[in-house]
Specification:
The chain is an alpha/beta fold. It has a domain of 186 residues: Rossmann fold (3-Layer(aba) Sandwich). 46% of the residues lie in helices and 15% in strands. The chain is built from 10 helices and 8 strands. The longest helix has 23 residues. The protein is globular, with a radius of gyration of 18 Å. The N and C termini lie far apart (46 Å). The structure holds NADP nicotinamide-adenine-dinucleotide phosphate (NAP). The site of NADP nicotinamide-adenine-dinucleotide phosphate (NAP) has 32 residues, from α1 and α4.
Amino acid sequence: MSSSKSVAVVTGSNKGIGYAIVRGLCKQFQGDVILTARNEANGQEALKKLNAEGLKPVFHQLDITDDTSIQRMRDFLQKNYGGLDVLVNNAAIAYKMAATEPFSEQAEVSMATNFWGTLNACNVLFPLLRPHARVVHVSSRAGSMTAAKCSKELQTRFLDPELSMAKIKQLMNEFVESAKAGTHKAKGWHESAYGTSKIGVTLMTFVQQRELSADSRPDIVVNACCPGYVATDMTSHKGTKTIDEGADTPLFLAMLPPNTTSPKGQFVAERKVQNML
Ligand SMILES: NC(=O)c1ccc[n+]([C@@H]2O[C@H](COP(=O)([O-])OP(=O)(O)OC[C@H]3O[C@@H](n4cnc5c(N)ncnc54)[C@H](OP(=O)(O)O)[C@@H]3O)[C@@H](O)[C@H]2O)c1
């Protein structure tokens, strides 16, 4: 039966920064914390480790590239909680520098998870957001660094004051199409599939906040952030921060108090608002 108990969801939280975000939310958030993983066994394993620390997240399977999985997540939340209070979009992939897959494939696959997967999850789950909900996109400074290396013409489009979701989708599609045609450099893109997907994640934040601010539900705040350089599988454990240190800014944004006016619809690192470009 549906209840109004508060609930937080963290995507890709069986390991790395997402796992530490779940751990932090279990300690700070008043309500249930849902640990999600695309692989059920890996999720259950993570759950056991947190249980051993005395923490009690709830597990639910979620693959952000699978529409059916996202819909099941939505139905679970609707049925058991009747809404959603915190959504941390943390799940992402990154090819290693030594990856041998062609750049066109890296572009398409990175974009499918990091940009389209995140956007699709938002589109299905946002209708559940309750007043005062907090949404955090774990993006990356790699997005800003990649944007800084793109052509002036592309940068002007990133900073368009009339940016819309349609324009962001168009940009991300143009990147993948030009990567497939081998013309991405000539078209002004930088050779980073991961970085470009994170440009899309950061830009979607600005548009989503504008849309949610016009929504009848009051005080919903969406921010993007960079967790810093964190020792996880993604960085082959070369990062200088622990996962709990990497979780600090995402947790700060997830726990922003009622009626926060800043950060709101912004890109944040080390708890401070940053320029995207
Ligand atoms: N580490 C850093 O220095 C750093 C810096 C800047 C930004 N970030 C961002 O921080 C976030 C977490 O990264 P991390 O370093 O913790 O990476 P990680 O250890 O590789 O963890 C990534 C998580 O995302 C999950 N995931 C991947 N594809 C998914 C999908 N389709 N559906 C659901 N979950 C999926 C992974 O699941 P599996 O276990 O099944 O693969 C894993 O749980 C990412 O958004 C990353 O871009 C990291």
